[in-house]
Amino acid sequence: MILLTGATGKTGSETAKALIAKGVKARALVRSAEKAAALQAAGIELVIGDVTDRESVRKALAGVTRLFLLMPNSQHQLELEKQVVDLAKAAGVRHVVKMSSMEAVADAASPIPQAHWAAEEYIRASGLAWTMIKPNFFMQNLLGSAKSIKEKQSFALPMGEGRTAMADARDIGAVAAEALSGAGHEGQGYEITGPELLSFHQVAERFSTVLGTKVSYIPVDPGAYHEILKKVLTNEWHANAVSALFREIAEGESPQVTDTFKRLMGRDPISLERFIRDHIGAFR
To answer: What is the pLDDT of residue 223?
Structure first.
């Protein structure tokens, strides 16, 4: 049995869908049966509980051999991931597939990649088999700018001239499902990207091409955007951590486009143009 955490989020739900498509049985630990109703209807077994609650996790881990570890970014993320790993090991889980990021490296400077790296190291030292799924930037993040693109034909982000190799959550979920259900993935760190390295001005060009109207990217002062984030996100730690990630994109070295997805899945990754077409109702 495979246990999924984070199964109602953008990547977790795509992982669940990919497992369903493969005919693989899986269980999800979720807080809301209503939010997970579509997954249950498709064949995912549900355990209702909170990943922060040890007893809920123990119940969900019964009979599980493989675990998909996906936690929301928070100041308690590392502590919770360690707790789940310990409970998984005690329950007889053999393989942990962790959602991490390409930015998670030994010398990571911002809080979210630092937490991911520390959790990776904890898992590697646990004695369990492991696979790390490490995307760069999610195309689905652009849905947060959909209203502005639709109404103003522009979107504003503090990325400066930074570039990303953004990937679609559907592709990331497909790789996670393969790592959970396939063979030969132990001890691997899979850096997942889309097919292109793009600046956000080039992102705007892709929107313009697909939507048939001029869309502009407006670089925003990072300090001003941080004030906006503080009003939107749940706490100051999260706002600071996301701002630090955006600053790394704006100021850091560009990531490399990888062939990992095509090598594992035998097809090209989803392009930004296809992502926009598939979500055309949100942007037009």
So the answer is: 79
d(CA 82, CA 241): 20
Q: Quote the pLDDT of residue 254.
A: 77
Residue 234 neighbours by CB distance under 10 Å: 9
Buried b (16+ CB within 10 A) or exposed e, 11-20: bbbbbbbbbb
235 Cβ contact partners less than 8 Å away, ≥ 6 residues apart: 75
**pLDDT per position as a tens digit, 123-157:** 999 999 999 999 989 999 999 999 999 999 999 99
Please give the Cα distance from 90 to 274 (Å, whole number): 43
Q: Residue 173 is part of a domain; what is its CATH number?
A: 3.40.50.720
Range of the domain at 41: 2-136+169-193+257-269
Q: How far is residue 100's CA from residue 120's CA, in Å, rounded to a whole number?
A: 8
Tell me whether strands 95-99 and 129-135 are parallel, antiparallel or unpaired. Answer: parallel
SS3 101: coil
Q: What percent of the chain has pLDDT over 90?
A: 81
The pTM is what? 0.93
Domain count within the chain: 1
Residue 284: half-sphere exposure toward Cβ, Cα within 13 Å: 14
